[in-house]
Design goal:
24% strand, alpha+beta, single chain
């Protein structure tokens, strides 16, 4: 993706074209298995939480005009063309000015053995032709207004303190400091033909900080690249849209918290779902739903180590804390929302929030999500331990006991209802529990009860959740409203082909806008189209035999996405093509994986292998 930008003199605090903020779709993402950084086209790291993805941000200009950032950009006007290296999450940017050209290579470094015990953000500048002067600007954030950064001079260099975070800039000798304050540094780097420079941030929290040499950091860029490529090339997918599938898999891998095996829903908080106040959420936690769907995508791609880690993490915390909707990435309970009133918000849109009010809800969908992941895991030749098997059997009993109760539903709404998709998920859970028991993975003694209950659930769905008006399964029992997530009933295994095809037609007619789909009735006026919904509909159409129609819709969907580096957010405004919501969004990326797999003829039900 190419951008033309003004000279630095025209904008000492470089601003994107939208109220001082870059469009969400213009950000590229880097990660190291612990945190994720977002980089704007002007070379500014506007979001990065240290040490972990769900820590307070070190760089927070994504949400605050006066926030922290770490920028490298030419002084002269320039164009920037960015792309990830093939099969990698290492980013390369070609810089071109009237005076010459250069390449910037960026990585949140790791090793072949996994993440480093510190955050290491490496930025290499290589001159290609001519001569370019770069300005390096490093401004510490206040962690959303909660701390005051300061600098400490030592015999081993300057140390930056941001609350409990310790940070240090490592650089080659050809970086010249122009100005240095407690909260900011400005420096200059001049590169010519075949000149090489490196600037890196190393940071940790409440720990001593090891300081590598520039040469060690520079070498680790290539080590990280090889590690990414080795992982991406090990994926077992050779169907259509392979490039999109691999890029989405790499984005999903960014959201896997290597320290525990948890999978975050997204890398950011408070990016708005609409361009006015009110619908901003913190997604830097592990929802059972999102973690299960991502794990299922990894199963499809043969990434069994990640699936095992995610399943083990889920089971451990389910046994420790019970079936919650979400957990912190380290397994702790997610707190209710805390608001930062003095932080601007993206484009001035409030609230800026940490925590999530849905943490205290109950959603029946967690039962289906857990059992689908476990069933797919064992159906690929893997084994459960007895503790996990007993825990799953207990969850199946809970599901059988509670499916008749109202819940908050897949969309985490404030009013509990008999949501159709929640009943589908309960059916899915008991169906997979029965299959696993019949194959010896769970005790068989409760199969008769589970079987009877899943049949009652299906009967309830058919009788109570069908809209004669729309000839479609409804959003909730007794309603004529529609819900796009019902498309998931097809890959989940609900055998109602004609009714499901009719439902998909109604969803596309009532909730569709071109290739994009809104979540449920009434959301057209409230928020953007939910990108994963389009993929769910594509997957369902393909599995039900309308493959040509699914192909056409999926091709149109991919063509209509912004032409960026491949990082996809939660929602899109169909009228403007602008992304909305948090990014990168796991559900969006895994939707692409599932849709492509369905088009490749992979039905991917548990126990469907010979």
């Amino acid at each position: 993706m190419s951008h033309s930008l003004p000279a630095l003199a025209d904008a000492l605090t470089p601003e994107g074209p939208l109220d001082g903020f870059w469009p969400i779709e213009d950000y590229a993402a880097l990660g190291d298995g612990r945190s994720v950084a977002l980089i704007a086209p002007d070379g500014s790291v506007d979001w990065c939480c240290v040490p972990n993805l769900d820590s307070p941000p070190m760089f927070d200009r994504l949400l605050h005009r006066a926030g922290g950032f770490f920028q490298i950009r030419p002084v002269a006007p320039f164009t920037a063309t960015r792309q990830y290296r093939e099969d990698s999450n290492v980013l390369e940017t070609l810089i071109e000015t009237e005076h010459g050209s250069a390449r910037i290579t960026e990585s949140l470094n790791s090793t072949f053995a996994g993440r480093l015990p510190w955050t290491e953000f490496a930025r290499r500048i290589e001159g290609i032709s001519g001569r370019i002067t770069f300005l390096v600007r490093f401004r510490l954030g206040t962690r959303c207004g909660t701390v005051a950064p300061w600098i400490q001079s030592t015999e081993n260099g300057d140390v930056h303190h941001i609350g409990s975070v310790l940070a240090h800039l490592v650089h080659t000798p050809n970086m010249r400091i122009l100005r240095q304050l407690d909260e900011a540094i400005e420096a200059e780097i001049i590169v010519g033909d075949k000149t090489h420079a490196l600037v890196a941030l190393v940071a940790t929290q409440d720990e001593p900080l090891a300081v590598p040499t520039p040469e060690q950091i520079d070498e680790r860029i290539e080590t990280s690249d090889r590690a990414w490529r080795n992982w991406a090339q090990s994926l077992s997918y050779d169907g259509p849209y392979a490039g999109h599938v691999k890029r989405s898999a790499l984005a999903l891998k960014l959201l896997l918290y290597a320290s525990s095996g948890a999978i975050a829903a997204a890398a950011t908080t408070s990016l708005p779902e609409r361009l006015r106040d009110g619908k901003n959420w913190d997604y830097r936690f592990a929802w059972i739903r999102d973690a299960a769907y991502v794990a299922n995508a990894f199963v499809r791609l043969g990434a069994i180590a990640e699936v095992k880690a995610a399943l083990a993490w889920l089971v451990h915390h389910l046994g420790e804390q019970g079936p919650l909707v979400m957990y912190g990435l380290s397994g702790d309970k997610v707190e209710d929302e805390t608001f930062y009133e003095d932080v601007d918000g993206y484009r001035g849109i409030h609230p800026v929030v940490t925590g999530n009010r849905a943490a205290g809800q109950h959603q029946h969908g967690i039962y289906g999500d857990i059992f689908e992941t476990a069933a797919l895991f064992v159906s690929r030749g893997n084994l459960l331990d007895q503790k996990t098997a007993q825990l799953l059997a207990g969850l199946a009993d809970l599901c059988a006991d509670h499916w008749r109760q109202k819940d908050a539903g897949i969309w985490e709404l404030m009013e509990d209802r008999h949501y159709t998709m929640s009943k589908v998920s309960c059916w899915q859970a008991l169906d997979r529990a029965c299959q696993m028991a019949e194959r010896g993975h769970l005790a068989r003694d409760r199969v008769p009860r589970w079987t009877r209950e899943k049949e009652r659930i299906l009967d309830y769905i058919d009788k109570e959740c069908w809209s004669e008006k729309h000839q479609a399964y409804s959003f909730y029992a007794g309603s004529d409203e529609l819900d796009a997530s019902i498309a998931l009933a097809v890959p989940f295994g609900i055998d109602r082909k004609e009714r499901m095809l009719s439902t998909l037609d109604a969803v596309r007619k009532q909730l569709g806008r071109g290739p994009f789909i809104y979540r449920y009735t009434g959301m057209q006026q409230e928020e953007g189209a939910f990108l994963a919904c389009s993929c769910w509909v594509v997957e369902a159409l393909a599995l039900l035999g309308r493959k040509d129609e699914a192909e056409t819709m999926f091709a149109a969907f991919l063509e209509a996405l912004p032409k960026n580096t491949g990082t996809i957010a939660e929602m899109i405004d169909p009228d403007t093509g602008m992304y909305l919501g948090n990014t990168p969004q796991g559900l969006s990326h895994l939707g692409i994986v599932h849709a492509a797999c369905a088009l490749a003829g992979d039905r991917m039900k548990a126990f469907d292998l010979p």
